[in-house]
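Predict structure. Chain length: 276.
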Amino acid sequence: MHKLIPHIFLTFFLGALANSRVRFLKNILIRIFISIYKPNMDEAIHSDINKYTCYNDFFTRRLKEGARKIDSSNNVFISPVDGEIVDHGQIKGGQLIQAKDYKYSLNDLTGKDFEENLDEGYFITIYLAPTDYHRIHCPFEGKITTSRHLGKSLFSVNKAAQDSIPNLYIKNERSVIEIDSEEFTYTIVSVGASVVGSIVPYWSGRERITRNELIEDWNNGPTEKTKIRKGDELAHFRMGSTVIIVFKNAKNIDLDSLKENMRVKFGDKLLSLKNI
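Prediction complete.
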C-alpha cells in the first residue's frame, strides 16, 4: 500500500485540521497526541496546552531556555535534531544507502550535480519520530551557500517504507541547505513524509504559508544572516520525518562514535573533528 499511495491528499486535509484555531478542536488533538506519544512537556516552552494557537503550533513547540546544553567545543559537530540514527556510511560511487536492499543517488537527493563520486564522503540519516522535538538546528558554524526545495510526493518514511520503497528519499518533498565552514562543506537534507505538509525555513517569517510561498522561500534562500552559529535554528517540520547529513569529504572527521539505532538529541555531540 505504501508503494501505491503518496499521502499528499491526506497531508493537505490533516494540515488544515492541524492549523485550525478552534480552541476545543485543537485542544482535543493536542491531548490525543500527548496521550499516545507522551512527549516530554517539561522541556517545552509552554507546558500549558492552552498557550498554543493550533495543533501545529504545539507540534513545532520550541524548547524552554536551558532545556538543552549545546556542546560548544570547537572540534564537535552536534546533532541538529532529536531522533534515531537509522543509517550511516561511506558514499560510494555517488550512492547512499536507504536500507539493506536499496541505494539512491546523491545527485538526485540534493538536486546538485557532483562531478566527482565523493568516495571519501559520508552520510548520516536521522529519523524523527512523532514524539521528538521537530526543529532543525545548525550543527556546526558556517555560511549558507545554497538552499532549494525539491520533490512532490509525501510517502511515509518509517521503517516499513524504508525497506519497501526504492528511492524513497528522492521521491519525497524535501529541502536542501548547503553550509560552508572553514573546515569542510556539509549539506543538510530535510525529507518530508506523509502528514508533513511543510518544512519551514527560519528566514520565512510567515505565520501561515502556502505551498507556493514555501517553495519560493526555499529557492530564494535567506537574504541576510547567511552566517549561522552552532545551535541556530535552520527550519522546522510540521510533523515527523527524516534529516540526512552529507559530508563531501569525511577524512578529517572521527566517525567512531556513530552507531546504528543510536538515539541522539539536539545539542549533543554527534561527531568529533580531527586536527582542530
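Summary: Helices lie at 8-18, 23-37, 55-59, 106-110, 159-164, 168-171, 211-220.
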